Amino acid sequence: MNAPDSDLPTGEDIADLRGQIDAIDDQLVRLLNERATVAKQIGAFKHREGLPIYSPEREDRLLRGLADKNAGRPLPTVSLLAIYREIMSAALALEKNIAIACLGPVGSATHQAAREKFGSSVSYRPLATVGAVFREVITGESDCGVVPLDEAGHGTLNATLDCLAESDIQICAQIFAVMDEDDPGRSRTRFLVLGGSLNPPSERDATMILLRVEDKPGALIRALEPFREHEINLQHVANRPASKGSQDVFFFVEAEGHSRDLQTSNVFRDLSMRCRAVKLLGSYPCPATAPTGA
């Protein structure tokens, strides 16, 4: 017969450990409420100054900082960020009764992605079309909107590209979601978060730009030349026909860096000399280490 393991906790030890957890929980509740009080004060300031409630660049810095501090000891970083998703969701709801429009219905891939991003404390408005989501954000009925940019195995969603070309909405964040847990390598879907204003820079950004180019041989290569000249990497390119009756093509390109950096390097000036039109669609943080909430 094996000797009893002296390192295993006894009933008395368990009672003591649970007492320690209760004491820590008391501290957590107090600190969370202190955090919530500060969040309400920040919300009042944003309301007074007319600032957007959702700040993607602040979210990105906070989550990256938490991941660096945690280093998975012993709580996995993905678990810590999931906890903070709900903490930040509650803070957003305290700052304002925030509403998120998304392509519905409830339970759809876009609705699930929005909940992964913004948590369970904010309100969601599932809508029937991508255009309806854009209109909700344009009219201010919703603070942000979430729409799919592409679908695994189906390519870029044309309705989203068309609405981006026609509206003045800014892309303020992006979401990557795995739709099939059994095949994560082939089922990653990308969603865009829509807002009304351009984000300040974060630690690492991308910028989406619309280029209107004449549909003729060599036109696209010429249009993209400024990115090569300024050594700017392009991460994504999609295209759609321009308006009916036109022979032009819209190209949607995603460049590394924030639009402020691109303006400083004169990329926009050089693009305007080669394209019929150039439109900034938004700058947004590149994803942090794991899916997160706002």
Describe the structure.
It is a single chain. The chain has helices spanning 11-49, 56-70, 77-95, 109-118, 130-139, 158-166, 219-229, 259-264, 267-272, and strands spanning 99-103, 123-127, 144-148, 150-151, 155-156, 170-178, 188-195, 205-214, 234-241, 248-256, 277-285. Helices cover 43% and strands 24% of the residues. The protein has a domain at 205-285: ACT domain (Alpha-Beta Plaits, 2-Layer Sandwich), CATH 3.30.70.260. It is an alpha+beta fold.
Give a brief description.
The protein is α+β, with helices and mostly antiparallel strands. Helix content is 43%, strand content 24%.
Helicity level: 40-55%
Q: What structural category do the secondary elements indicate? A: alpha+beta
Number of helices: 9
The CATH class of one domain:
Alpha Beta
As residue ranges, the low-confidence spans are 289-294
For CATH, the homologous superfamily of one domain is named as ACT domain
The general outline is: elongated
The count of strands amounts to 11
Largest sheet: 5 strands, mixed
